[in-house]
Amino acid sequence: MLRMILAYCVTTAVLAIFVYMGLTEYSLRAAESGERVIKITAHKFDYTPNEIRLKKDETVVLEFTSSDVDHGFNVPELGLRADVLPGKTTRIRFTALKAGKFEVHCDNFCGVNHEEMGGMVVVE
Amino acid sequence: MTMIDRRDFLKLAGLAGVTFVAGTGCAATGMGSSSDEFHFVQLSDTHWGFTGDAANPDAAGTLQKAVAAVNSLVEQPDFVVFTGDLTHNTDDPKERRRRLAQFKEIVSQLKVKNVRFMPGEHDGSLDKSAAYQELFGATHYTFNHKGVHFIALDNVSDPRGRLGEEQLQWLQADVKQQKTDTQIIVLTHRPLFDLYPQWDWATGDGKQAVDILLQHPKVSVFYGHIHQEHHFKTGHIDHHASKSLIFALPAPGSVPKRAAINWNPAMPYDGLGFREVEFDKSYANIEIKEYPVKRG
Ligand SMILES: [Cu+2]
After folding, report:
1. Among B31, B172, B182, B251, which residue has the least CB neighbours within 10 Å?
2. Does the interface predicted TM-score (ipTM) exceed 0.85?
3. What is the pTM of this model?
4. Nearest to A64, CA basis, from A109, A101, A111, A119
């Protein structure tokens, strides 16, 4: 029993260190490179802004949050997806590797007009 | 003689349609004596509670007509399955229960009493299928019918359209238990493969389910969600989407926006329908017959 508790504690500690290192590394990198931060807020049944403009090969940080219920942000053609949740910020570092117009859809069933909830990512 | 040999032989001999001696068929394919011809009926996407005259001015009467059409089949099916979106979604939990109850009442008019259900995202995604389960029970389950193993999968109770780790493990355990020569039929709402993810015509972790099913040599999937007939193969697994019973949707990616195809007054109920799935004695062939809502 004691050994199990010990093993559990060690695992937790190791995990905590990794998470801490990951976070530190993340904020350092973002700060160093001065990556552009784009904030996107989802609400029934739209995104603000509805259109995001990116430069090809530019790395940006996307910050998602919701002002009402759980939503999703999915751009299958760019391999980009995020959970967009109220009271929480989802951050994704993202580099668009191809130019074009790509449709966004909400992939978290959010209510009567869920199927109409979409947006656009324009990569130039 | 294998099944295909036999068919070719029949064709060559000009004997197609002649009933073959049953014993020969069973012996040739190595099936046990339990195998027997049968068929079931798949209905899908009835969206009870939907309103919108442009898409379907008879939204309050189409389900009853579909029930009557199934009841008028000369050979009644062994059972009927509804592959989700029984009702159209509503934010109001009371209204959701009212629609599910009305749906249940209408389909109780089916002559066939063996009826299986599963939720679609319109039934279950806003309350993790709580109301659905009160009225219809489990959202994923298995059953056997005349030697065929049926698996109903739930890819809608998670509003992100996923099966989830627990259900995938349950599926893996179930598939492992099946004998190699057992035909597996999967019933589900959303496509398990990436049909057109831009329109959410996919299952988030569907690939994992398909990988599990690929371990078994005989699997077919029957689903709904896309409101049109569609046939696709991933490896040796075939996937058959059924028409809707409320409105049709355009072919994947054929138009910029996914939206209901307008009702055609010249051809009422066009694009709507249900299907019959027939198994021959050896289960080597599965035949699909599509029916309109109204005959003639
Ligand atoms: Cu949404």
Report:
1. B251
2. no
3. 0.83
4. A119
